Amino acid sequence: MKKMKMSLLIGLMLLLAVFLVACGGDDSESSEGSTDTNGEDNGETASEENPETTLTFLVDNQTVTDGIEAVAEDIKEKHNITTEIELRPGGTEGDNIVKTRLATGEMTDIMWYNSGSLFKALNPEEYFLDISGESFVEKYDDAYKETVSVGDAVYGVPGEASSAGGWLYNKKVYEELGLEVPNTWDELMANNEAIKEAGKVPVIASYKDTWTSQLVLLADYYNVHSEDPDFAEQFTNNEAKFASTPIALRGFEKLQALQEAGHYNGEESATGYEDALEMLASGEAAHYPMLTFALAAIADTYPDNIEDIGFFGQPGAEADDHGVTLWMPGSIYANKDSENVEAIKTWLEYFVSDEGLETYMAEMKANGPYVLEGVELPDDAYPAVKDMASYLEAGKVGPALEFLSPLKGPTLEQITVEVGLGMVTPEEGAEKYDRDVERQAQQLDLEGW
Amino acid sequence: MSTQHEIMRKEKRKKSRIRLIVESLIVIVFSAIFLVPFYFIIVNAMKTSPEASKLSISWPTEFRILENMQEVLAARDNMLLLAFFNSTVITVISILILLVVGSMAGFVLQRRKGKSINIIGSTFLAGLMIPPAVVPTIWVLEQFQLFKTFPGIILVMVAISIPFSIILYTGFIATIPKELDEAAIIDGCGGFRLFFSIIFPMLKPIHSTVIILNAVQIFNDFVHPLYFFPGADNATVQLTLYNFMSMYSTDWNLLFANVLLITIPPFILFLIFSEKIVAGMTAGSVKG
Amino acid sequence: MKINKMYSYSLLIPAGLIYGLFFLYPTIMSFFFGFTRWNLTDWEWIGLENYIMFFEESSLMIGFKNTFIFAFLTAGLKVVLGLIFAVLLTAKLRTKRFIRSLVFFPVLVSTIAVGIAFSVLLHPSEGLVNTVLGLIGLNGPDWLGNPNLAIYSVAFVDVWKGVGIATVIFIAGMMSIPVDYYEAHQMDGGNKFNAFWHITLPLSRPAINAVIILALIGGLRTFDLVWAMTGGGPGFSSDLIASIIYKQYQAGFYGLSTAGNVLLFLMVAVIVFPIFKYLNRKEVDL
């Protein structure tokens, strides 16, 4: 009885306390929260000589932050700015968190996010700091700049090297079977057949991580772009559809062709991205349609095998037009409403300065070319990245659709799984995707939809 | 005489042997179904990273449970310790509030009759069916400057848990005879005094039920803290599972060690209350 | 009059305030936003457009079908298994405390952890479940990868995780049945099996009703286990209404997803209320 009374008392007191806090919660407490310095007493120091500042930085847990952390260390040393990284989940769940936090004014000082369509769907003018006036923006590659700009305003700083989407392959398997890098889709299918006969897995489908299923479709965009350069614009303006544009439909058809020919690994839904990397690195499988950013993960987990991994772009119909689809790097964006705008600018400027890049590159090997002028691929780049560079030198390169159009239907990865597993035909998949895009455009309230 | 006695004894022994076999069989079947997944988690939590990545149920060749636990605890600047603190604060305070306000409401809802009380009751019960609206809730929290604060997340957790708690309380209170209240009235007790001095102490068994069911729910919640309590300093235990699942590779041994660690508090709670869960509902659930 | 005064509304105020402010109010707001195109900062009234668009969702039919399968299958299994377990565990079993704990263990583990562990255990070739099946010569299916099977596999895991609560509620119900009933029954020469049908079952009815309603409501609106195990896949084959809504929400279609929430609520109400009424009427009949 006594005990009960005691706990009752405590309960009531706590209740009271909660309400008191609730009513008396003064502005300073809740608005500073995470944006201000962490635990420093003199958080409000104005413009002293090099005052200590802490910047909060929201990053998803799928991005490799070693390079960023190394640069942040330098920045701490040189400018007395501490970087506090806060992790969030990746994928669509992460997108949702970013959107919610932006809308509720709870974003960190700087944040990491995709460039291109996903970024533009965030309503950047509302939330991000326009850095078009900074001198370092002049170093940007134009194609990249476009993906982090709205009108004349520029919002992003490239946070990594770009990557290419295409086919990673195991060179040892190719050597063993005496195969050559295919330059047309038919040659690729023939290679697959030979690999299958040799008892190896021709192509890995890792649909447990659904996002990986999109690669065959998305990496085919170079072929679309080179035949029909206006597709992206017409697609954005509701004038062209995947289902009714044969060259665009090809991507869905290729996804299915591999399934029909039995070139996938089996157990597709139980195979994840990591499993796929292991299969490729060990030579159990020959091909993995993927972005070149996977190379860093392979190098980390299977350092002995990274030299065996090569790369080629997803081939089309013509051997002399074999190119790659390029993915712009993820970018770092600054919160417009941060109290530390000056520190942020210092941070960003250092990050893309020669010194910053040097530190970065010492820690992280490139997945592809950097999007800053005058920054060359180092000689010790991964072999696969060198393979990729040869396409760039030949000018056989085009950006992925998501960097040319603000539209990317949110359920694409489920649709490509369906097509890849043979649950629906390519036509049905394309139609589904067109409807998905239509819905997105209507929800974004785009003109012409 | 003696032979008959012996036969009976034999019979009895035979019966008890069958009983033993049946019982052992039951134990084996239940263990296989309910314990093997835990066994799987535990053995893998003890292994080295490469061995755990095979995800087999074999016994570890090398025991690394302490190292794994240390590594889990130290990961990301002792994030797990902070998360334990945060989750515990949220759970304990939410439960305390829930016990008081839930039982008060359950009492009135059970005792009063009439149309208006029925409407109020249904409104509370509708909460079981309505999925919480995330963004408007954030918006409301911001109005009160409670977003990203302990009081904010606690009040939301309480609000979400109230309907189920009220069901449990009304069910139990229905078994407390009304005569008791009437006797109290004659003694000149007011509403609050009646409740707190007479009724509330009698609710002990159902409090246990409310505590364990809700505490486990709140402690294990992943989604709500993610939305209503974001921020690096505000990590909760479920979020720590993400520490070991990254694009690079999943450290299964650490992931499972983490699962083990964060299951300890609910487990302790269960040990304390396990006998009382049933007692609380014995009366309560009958009246639904 | 006097009695009602005893049960003063003021006792309701704290619960009402918290529930009203932090649950009902946002919910009502969301009903409103269901009629708008909403990007969190701005909204535009678009009437029923969201509702129409929600019904045009291509995977909606799959979602409906799966939601029904999931809700009724899990509720049914929890009732049946829970009853069986409860009968076992109220019998004279020496190990009943141990088994009762076993059955309740999964309740203690978070959904995410359960999802992670089971997606590993259900792996088609390397998972424990199929390895065991292989030992007895059976070729286990791809539990989560087969589009026709995935939702059932998740449902079984949900039962595994949730049957403990049902069992406890049933045990509570059975333990509150006065022993004299059974004694009288035995005196009349009834056997144990009959006792179950004529005493245990009817007198556990309120507990059964409670489990049915709770499990049904839970099954109709949860999706976290599906999300942790299959993400609604392969493709859309294990999507539930709730996971479709969640995906729309993730895509930033706030108006659309709130409209979906309203519809989900209506659907739950339409299904659960008649069943609730029906069950309660039966209770009176007895």
Automatic annotation (TrEMBL), chain A:
InterPro entries: Bact_solute-bd_prot1 (IPR050490), SBP (IPR006059). The keyword Signal applies. PROSITE patterns: PROKAR_LIPOPROTEIN (PS51257). Gene3D superfamilies: Periplasmic binding protein-like II. Keywords: Signal. Residues 38-51 have a biased composition (Acidic residues). Residues 1-24 form the signal peptide. Residues 27-52 are annotated as: Disordered. It holds the Pfam family SBP_bac_1. This is Carbohydrate ABC transporter substrate-binding protein (CUT1 family). It comes from Saliterribacillus persicus. The lineage of its organism: Bacteria, Bacillati, Bacillota, Bacilli, Bacillales.
From TrEMBL, chain B:
One of its GO terms (cellular component) is plasma membrane. GO terms for biological process: transmembrane transport. This is Carbohydrate ABC transporter membrane protein 2 (CUT1 family). Pfam families: BPD_transp_1. The chain crosses the membrane at residues 20-42, 79-107, 119-141, 153-172, 252-273. Keywords: Cell membrane, Membrane, Transmembrane, Transmembrane helix, Transport. Belongs to the binding-protein-dependent transport system permease family. It comes from the Bacteria. It comes from Saliterribacillus persicus. SUPFAM superfamilies: MetI-like. It is found in: Cell membrane. It is a multi-pass membrane protein. PROSITE patterns: ABC_TM1. Its main location: membrane. Residues 84-273 form the ABC transmembrane type-1 domain.
TrEMBL record, chain C:
The chain crosses the membrane at residues 12-35, 68-90, 102-122, 149-174, 195-219, 225-246, 253-276. GO terms for biological process: transmembrane transport. Its main location: membrane. Keywords: Cell membrane, Membrane, Transmembrane, Transmembrane helix, Transport. It is a multi-pass membrane protein. Gene3D superfamilies: MetI-like. The keyword Protein biosynthesis does not apply. It is found in: Cell membrane. It comes from the Bacteria. Residues 64-275 form the ABC transmembrane type-1 domain. GO terms for cellular component: plasma membrane. Belongs to the binding-protein-dependent transport system permease family. This is Carbohydrate ABC transporter membrane protein 1 (CUT1 family). It comes from Saliterribacillus persicus.
